[in-house]
Input
Amino acid sequence: MKRREFLTVAAGYAGLVVARAQVAPPPHPAVAAAAGPFALPPLPYADHQLEPYISARTLSFHYGKHHKTYVDNLNKFTAGTDLAALPLEDVVQKTAGVVEKAAVFNNAAQVWNHTFFWKSMKPGGGGQPQGKLLAQLEKDFGGFDAFRKTFIETGLAQFGSGWVWLVTEGGALKVVKTANADTPLVHGQKPLLTCDVWEHAYYLDYQNRRKDFVEAFMDNLANWTFAAAQL
Ligand SMILES: [Fe+2]
Output
């Protein structure tokens, strides 16, 4: 191959590599395949892509350690039981409120909640949704700004670990909070968007300033395309 031809081919290959990287982030280096029926879903973006609002370090620990540990524990606690053959949402529903299955519920719900949280954010997100979702927020909260204020205040009002959610219930949009691993799935509510307010979600970047984190989520990360698709 002549040098000029080689350069042309090489440039084309480099372009292909860049294009692929933009479509699918590489596998997370901290995550090995789960040993069991429940798998850790891939992150929808690379570790650094939510910066400066969530650092690569926070995202790497949160996904590669915390989320992965919930998956590993779920596989461990369901091994050899009928639950291991069920879809994740069914495990959450069947173990909710069952005292002797609390460990299974906590890990199953945390796997589900975290997967939903990653999808609730995107690089370049935040601001206002559009169309039907915006109209419904205006109808049910009296305006987007009132919704934003309610979401942030509800995230702050969750004492200790938990989650703040935008859900639909009985045809209306609501903001609710859940403690620890609890999830709207088991309360007859349909989640549209969530923000993790466990300290592990923000402590490395914001220390104790949960308000700054939830504001950054709402203004710069919220994936309204995903939320609208849940309606
Ligand atoms: Fe978390």
User: Anything to note?
Assistant: The first helix runs from residue 3 to 23. The two ends are 56 Å apart (CA to CA). The first strand starts at residue 162 and ends at 169. Residues 62, 66, 114, 196, 198, 200-201 surround fe (ii) ion (CB under 6 Å).
